Amino acid sequence: MSESHAHAGEHGHAQPLSFWWKYVFSVDHKVIGIQYMITSFLFLLLGFAMMLLMRYQLATPQPGENFDPEHLGMVRGLIAWLFGEERMPYGFMAPEFYNQLGAMHGTIMIFLGVVPLGVAAFGNFVLPLQIGAEDMAFPRLNMASYWVYFVGGVVMLSSFLAPGGAAQSGWTSYAPLSVTAPPGQTIWLIAMVLIITSSLFGAINFIVTTLNLRAKGMSLGRMPVFCWAQFVTAVLLLLAFPVLEAGAILQLLDRVAGTSFFIPKDMIYGATVFPRAGGGNPLLWQHLFWFLAHPEVYVLLLPAFGIVSEIIATNTRKPLFGYKELVGSIVFIGVLSFVVWAHHMFLSGMRTSLANLFVTTTLIISVPSVAVLTCLLLSLRGARIRFTVPMLFALAFLPMFGIGGLTGLPLGFAPTDLHLHDTFYVIGHFHYVVAPGSLVALIGATYHWFPKMFGRKMNDTLGKIHFWGTVIPMNLIFFPMLIQGMWGMQRRLADPTLQWHNLPVQGWSTVILVGSVVMMAFQIPFLFNFFWSIWNGEKVGENPWEATTLEWACPSPPPHGNFAAPPEVHRGPYEYSVPGHQVDYWPQDEAA
Amino acid sequence: MDYGYGWGLPPAASSYAAQIDSLMWLLHVVMVGIFIIWGVYFSYCLVAYRATNGHRASYHTAGERSSLIPDGLILAFEMWLILAFGIPIWAQIKQRTPPADQALEVNVMGQQFAWNFQYAGPDKAFGRRKVSLVTAANAIGLDDTDPAAKDDIVTINNLHVQVGKPVILHMTSKDVIHSFQVTNFRNKQDLVPGLQTMLWFTPTEVGKYEIGCAQLCGIGHTQMIGNVFVDTPEAYDAWAKEQLQGRVATSAGGSVTPAQAVETSDARGIAGTAPKS
Amino acid sequence: MSSQAHTATVATSTGIPHAKLGMWTFLASEVMLFGGLISSYVILRSGSPTMVIPPRTMMGVPLATLNTFVLISSSVTMVLALAAMKANELDKYMRYLAMTFGGGVIFLMIKAYEYNHKWHEGITISSNLFGSFYFTLTGLHALHVIGGMGIMAYLMWAGAKGHQSPTNYDRVEAGGLYWHFVDLVWVILFPILYLV
Question: Which class does domain A30-62+77-553 fall in?
Answer without folding.
Answer: mainly alpha
